[in-house]
Design goal:
Layout: H1 11-21, E1 29-33, H2 40-51, H3 67-73, E2 80-83, H4 92-102, E3 112-116, H5 124-135, E4 141-147, H6 155-158, E5 162-165, H7 171-182, H8 186-195, H9 200-208, H10 210-221, H11 228-266, H12 276-320, H13 332-340, H14 344-363, H15 368-378
Length: about 375
Amino acid sequence: MTVWDDLQGQPAVVAQLQQAANGEGLTHAWLFTGPPGSGRSNAAKAFAAALNCDQEDVRRRGCGECPACLTILGETHADVAFVRTEKVTITIDEARELVSTAGNRPSSGRWRIIVVEDADRMAERTTNVLLKAIEEPTPRTIWMLCAPSPADVLVTIRSRCRPVALRLPPAADVAALLVKRDGVEPELAERAARAAQSHVGIARRLARDADARERRLETVRFPLGLRGITAAVLMAEKLVKIATEEANSSNDERDAAEKVALLATLGAPETGTLPPAMRSQVKQLEDDQKRRAKRSITDSLDRTLTDLMSFYRDVLIIQMGNGVELVNVELRDELEEFARRSSPEVTLARMDAINKARQRITTTNVAPLLAIESMAASLN
């Protein structure tokens, strides 16, 4: 086992990072880009582990077994900071704290490493706070920024970073990872990888959660019963409900565990009223969890619309006579019947309506239900 094992379908990226970890072409700032599910944050984590690996032999860096590799993969290494936001954006105060951290010398490893998993969630003035630190880094500091595409990061930042471009791995590679890492049955792993369109995280959730698979299938089947405005309104309400349930199922258990951990850390009494100082910290945690829940619902809505898009993607493939494998192969008969009732032009227009709804939900303050209702009306 090595730190590179989870980077399925990325041989060029692994070769590039292994070479840099061996000291060839190493630079102080890196930009990992790729579509959601491509594993850009996993690639950054593996690279960080390889750079600080305890192995003296450079050819064995990234062994995945030494204390440094294990603590970095577990995100507990003192010299490697992982930055991700549960809010809409990374704040300017958080960016200033990063710059301060980056100025410290590593305490035990070779490098002080800052991994920013949501570099696309920084406003321009926030990004500018990082610019000087990336332009003039301290000698033993390495920055790793992750974003969906280079265009999501200011040109002044990306011009100072070495690019690492990831792609979605083939579904077969994702299925193989689920079988090897998670012990999923091969047939279920293949179905989950295909339904997730090679998004590793979503594939793992679909493989392990029967309710998630059922919610996805319900979403994909919606267009089959879409007749008129009333049906469109009902579809919109149901889509928002599905996305909310999906987000809540992920958040509830984590929220409860975080509260228990905080109370234990504070030494809170098992019964009775909490002291005022403790109540304020619990209130801060609950406020943070509410903000996270809002983003989780937005992200879940985006994934739900991606599932819906896969229906029309399959319809278009059938209409164009393309031999590409369908995502929703279990619905082939219904897809072929649906495809006969429309044209490629109509299907493309419907896909455009879904993309517009995704953009409005993720980049504006529009009420999600209104955006989904408008989209659903366009799908008639």
